[in-house]
Specification:
By secondary structure, the protein is an alpha+beta fold. The chain contains 13 helices and 22 strands. The strands form six sheets. The protein has a five-stranded parallel beta sheet, with helices on one face. A five-stranded antiparallel beta sheet has the order 12-15-18-22-19. β1, α1 and β2 form a beta-alpha-beta unit. α7 runs antiparallel to α8. The radius of gyration is 21 Å and the shape is globular. 48% of the residues are buried.
Length: 428
């Protein structure tokens, strides 16, 4: 198969790495890709939101399968666009329809979907700028801390956890009246704070059947001990000890099945990945959010544990034949450590040459924000630069492999968290 993969981050490099291992893939194109994908596939200079350009490329290169990595083209309706064109209507696409992508594109839409389909989640109310007084009154009835969420896409930064009522009121006004997150906060969801330990559950679905992928725990904040600003993710661990068989059975019965059944019942076309952000609250699962694609950096830890053919999985999603696919998952641990540009998630300098050792025993180095300069050197081009995944028979071995490689990768002002996985080790 000729496959087109859209995206340029660590998630897409992990997808590409897994796709090219399959004998079913004859040619992989990545648009726009990064320095890592360029080593194993053909990078294409094409924007992920250039729908006309994507269509032309599919037709000119006899693409048999399209895989969408990030959420933006999904929320903007790429799947619907390709389905509406005669020439591309029959080409399988891995990614939900625009309506399906609203599960991530609108927090209010997803909360109402959960409510209708009896999916356990935190209590909430949604407010717009013309309901500011009602919203402020509602805040006074809430227990602390109070969670405020921008309704729309805010690059992972639209969630605030307010420790005082004064802070909640001030932030609520900033979001609605001063557009703190732009159009994303034209609606604000006020949510009950959930206690417990977070995890990410990944589901592949063709809209009828589903397969549950390995679960993971990620690390959002920039500083050790989960301090400082939120980021796109500083690391991930899979499997997680607090998601035992009994808990995961509850996740399947109370969350996954009602979600997939709800999509079908409400005629929401959905052939893609569903990332379910969960809270384990005393052994009970509560949904924090849905994302309509794989997570990053969790993908870089999850995919190395899938041992069955990945292209067969993707094709099963796209063609509606997922029920015939048998997923096989390794019992090994995988841990991912993200290396970032100094200053991230604030401002940072780009263009520093990166030295990566040739031998990276027990690890895979996934590129995220990298490019090649005029001299052919790999340089940092984004905030999150590399994701190093270590594998092992134990969590300790996987972490050792990851950090041994991290310590041998260098560029000016590079930073990483040294405590990834340490909280899980204490639970074992």
């Amino acid at each position: 198969m000729n496959i087109l993969l859209l995206g340029s981050g660590g998630r897409e490099h992990a997808f590409a790495w897994k796709i090219v291992q399959s004998p079913k893939c004859s040619q992989l194109f990545v648009a726009p890709g990064n320095a890592g994908t360029a080593e194993i596939a053909k990078n294409i200079s094409l924007s992920i939101t250039d729908f006309d350009g994507i269509k032309s490329f599919i037709l000119e290169n006899a693409v048999d399968l399209v895989v969408v990595g990030p959420e933006e083209p999904l929320v903007k309706g790429l799947v619907d666009y390709l389905a509406a064109q005669n020439e591309t209507a029959k080409i399988p696409v891995v990614g939900p329809s625009q309506l399906g992508a609203t599960l991530e594109g609108s927090k209010d839409f997803s909360k109402r979907f959960m409510q209708r389909n009896n999916v356990p989640t935190a209590a909430y109310e949604t407010f717009t700028a013309d309901q500011i007084d009602a919203g402020l009154a509602y805040l006074e009835t809430q227990n602390l801390p109070i969670v405020l969420k921008a309704d729309g896409l805010a690059a992972g930064k639209g969630v605030l956890i307010c420790q005082t009522l004064e802070e909640a009121k001030a932030s609520f006004k900033e979001m609605l009246l001063e557009q703190k997150f732009g159009d994303a906060s034209s609606k604000v969801v006020v949510e009950e704070f959930l206690y417990g330990i977070e995890l990410s559950v990944f589901v592949a679905t063709d809209g009828k059947s589903y397969k549950i992928l390995p679960e993971a725990k990620d690390y959002k904040r920039i500083g050790e001990g989960d301090t400082g600003l939120n980021t796109g993710g500083m690391g991930a661990v899979t499997p997680v000890v607090f998601a035992d068989e009994a808990f995961m059975k509850k996740v399947e019965d109370l969350v996954v099945k009602p979600t997939v059944d709800g999509l079908a019942k409400e005629n929401i076309p959905y052939k893609g990945f569903l990332f379910i952000g969960l809270m384990n609250n005393n052994g009970e699962p509560y949904v924090i959010e849905y994302n309509v694609r794989m997570g990053d950096p969790e993908t870089e830890a999850v995919l190395p544990r899938i041992t069955s053919d990945f292209v067969d999985l993707l094709n099963g999603i796209g063609t509606g034949t997922l029920d015939t696919y048998e997923i096989e998952i390794s019992s090994q641990y995988a841990t991912t450590v993200v290396m970032v540009s100094g200053g991230y998630p604030g401002s940072y300098e780009k263009g520093f040459p990166i030295s990566i050792p040739e031998s990276t025993k027990g690890t895979v180095v996934f590129h995220a924000g990298t490019a090649r300069n005029d001299k052919g050197e790999i340089v940092n081009q984004g905030g999150r630069v590399l994701a190093i995944t270590g594998m092992g028979e134990s969590l300790e071995e996987a972490l050792k492999n990851a950090f041994d490689t991290v310590e041998n990768i260098h560029w000016d002002k590079a930073y990483y968290r040294k405590d990834i996985g340490q909280d899980i080790l204490k639970l074992i």
